Amino acid sequence: MVDTTEGDELALVPTPSVPRRTSKLGIVGAGAVGSTMAYASLMRGAARTVALLDVNKAKVDAEVLDLAHGIQFMSMAEVVGSDDVAVMADCDVVMFTAGAKQRPGQSRLDLAEATISLVRKVLPGLVEVAPNAVYVMVTNPVDVVTYAALKISGLPPSQLFGSGTVLDSSRLRYLIAQHTGVAVQNVHAYVAGEHGDTGLPLWSSASIGSVPILDWQGTGGTGALTREVRDAIAREVVESAYRIIEGKGATNYAIALAGSRIIEAVLKDERRVLPVSSLLDDYLGMSDVCLSVPSIVGSQGVLERLEIPMSSDEVLGMRRSAEAVRSVARRFGF
Predict the structure, then answer these.
(1) Is residue 192 within 8 Å of 202, Cβ to Cβ?
(2) Are residues 54 and 178 in the same domain?
(3) How far apart are CA 225 and CA 117, in angstroms?
(4) Is 168 labelled as part of a ligand binding site?
(5) Which of 83, 119, 125, 80 is nearest to 98 (CA)?
(6) According to the model, what pLDDT value does residue 2 have?
(7) At what angle do helices 253-267 and 166-180 cross, to 10 degrees?
(8) Is 54 annotated in some ligand binding site?
(9) End-to-end CA distance of the chain, in Å?
(10) pLDDT per residue over 260-273, tens digit each?
């Protein structure tokens, strides 16, 4: 308010208000992954508004109410939800978590048909109400779904990409840390390729602190990362998801945290290096396929894909991964 004085009277003139730019996160799907991602994002203060979209109105209304009741204990935010796509209007980033539920023993690629059908139905409406949003596909099989979503939406490859192997890389770093007794924050390693059975750890560029993992001899005579140990860790990265699904029906906590890290990279324009799944164009000779490679992520989406050094075995592994994803995409006409 501005004070103006006329004689003995005090007049209060309202100060012109300037609209405050706020961030809006949209999450498609209010299931285990979507609702947990909303919770994780709220706890981290990632966005000022979180919007949930789900075909099950009773479910989405209940999730919104439950989350809203906890706002007092988080950074200030607003939670909204609906079964109407209009709730996603003007989102800055949209996380697509809706899809067919993975059954115990079922591979991610087996989920493709039902999930692509859902994307075909929902995505065009989302792009209509939020044309400038950065879209992140999370639902599995994420690489095939991301490729299909690009074709369906017509969005540029920078604006739409998949969560890829951000979670796989987190699992890899956790297992290395457990074996070596070093803090996971000091382990630097990526899983590249498919988010699934053909994904591969990039051992040749991994390090603990500044020590290359292939040179790591352990501490105090323990924790060496021999070939056998590395192979066992690589298997565990792939198989752990199946064990979680068998035990509790879904993976939700770690993927929600991985998703919130992607959300922050976009909304805060962090230019963070993350192994997201995006359309490759002559990346080590690979094109026209969505795979995960370390990429710079910011407010405009995927800004650049980093061509990191790979061994000949790793390049071959990437090409096998590309062929596995392509073969499924072809099966569905993409």
Answers:
(1) yes
(2) no
(3) 43
(4) yes
(5) 119
(6) 47
(7) 120
(8) yes
(9) 59
(10) 999 999 999 999 99
Rounded to two decimals, what is the model's pTM? Answer: 0.90
What is the spatial distance between Cα 322 and Cα 55, in angstroms, rounded to a whole number? 33
State the residue for tokens 């009277």. 9
Judgement on whether residues 112 and 218 belong to the same structural domain of the protein: no
Query: Is 16 part of a structural domain of the chain?
Result: no
User: Tokens 């990346």 correspond to what residue?
Assistant: 283
183 is in an annotated binding site: no
Domain residue limits at 32 = 24-162
Same domain, residue pair 210 and 310: yes
State the pLDDT at residue 12: 59
Distance, CA of 172 to chain centre: 16
**Catalytic positions, written as ranges:** 195
Same domain, 112 and 142: yes
Strand runs labelled E in the chain: 2-6, 9-13, 24-28, 49-53, 78-82, 93-96, 134-137, 160-162, 187-188, 191-192, 200-201, 207-208, 211-212, 272-274, 277-279, 290-292, 295-298, 301-305
133 and 175 part of one domain? no
272-274, strands of its sheet edge to edge:
272-274, 295-298, 301-305
The low-confidence residues of the chain, meaning pLDDT below 70, are 1-21, 102, 105-109, 221
* Chain position carrying tokens 């959300």: 263
Give residue 104's pLDDT: 72
- How high is the pLDDT of residue 295? 98
Tens of pLDDT, residues 276-296: 999 999 999 999 999 999 999
User: Would the annotation count 260 as a binding residue?
Assistant: no
